[in-house]
Amino acid sequence: MSRRVKEFIDISDFASLDDLIAKLEAVRASLPAFAEAELRMKGDDVFGRKLSISFMRDKTAEEAEYDERYAEVIRAAQEQALDKLQQELGVVCRLPTGRKRRAA
After folding, report:
1. How far is the C-alpha of 54 from the C-alpha of 99, rounded, in Å?
2. 31-76 residue pLDDT tens
3. Which has more confidence, 90 or 16?
4. Who contacts 54 (Cβ-Cβ below 8 Å, separation ≥6)?
5. Among 46, 48, 35, CA closest to 8
6. Using CB atoms within 10 A of its CB, is residue 82 exposed (0-12), middle (13-18) or buried (19+)?
7. 3-state DSSP of the chain
8. N or C terminus of the chain: which is more exposed, having fewer CB within 10 Å?
9. Are 95 and 82 spatial neighbours (Cβ–Cβ below 8 Å)?
10. Which domains does the chain show, CATH number per domain?
11. Which pairs count as long-range contacts for 41-49, CB under 8 Å and 24+ apart, including other chains?
12. Contact at 8 Å (CB) between 56 and 7?
């Protein structure tokens, strides 16, 4: 399982350029070094626009515990879905097991 998750911050109320810059600087200062932050504008002229910042962050202890607790259940559900799809298509595929192949 991944050790990081994607998080989003939306900024919708920015009246002046100075306020927007201040908010963006505050967000940048609070991000971890590995964040790989991206800024996008979302919305339209009818419903309004907002800036959306996406970045990577470490999982919290609660999220990591959840992943550990339900990893086998999630994997079993994925295998069941894959088996059903294979039966429909008549193709055999396997989920990766995490083992690396040796170079021949």
Report:
1. 31
2. 988 888 999 998 888 888 888 999 999 888 898 888 888 888 888 9
3. 16
4. 6, 7, 8, 37, 38, 40
5. 35
6. middle
7. CCCEEEEEEEECCCCCHHHHHHHHHHHHHHCCCCCCCEEEEEEECCCEEEEEEEEEEECCHHHHHHHHHHHHHHHHHHHHHHHHHHHHHCCCCCCCCCCCCCCC
8. C
9. yes
10. 4-58 (3.30.1660), 60-95 (no CATH)
11. 42/10, 48/12, 49/12
12. yes
Q: How far is CA 67 from the centre of its chain?
A: 14
With 0.90 as the threshold, say if the pTM is over it: no
Q: Give the integer Cα–Cα distance in Å for 89 and 97.
A: 22
Q: What is the structure's pLDDT at 2? A: 63
Count how many residues are written for the chain.
104
> What is the predicted pLDDT for the residue at 95?
62
- CA-to-CA dists, residue 79 to 2, 69, 92, angstroms: 19, 17, 12
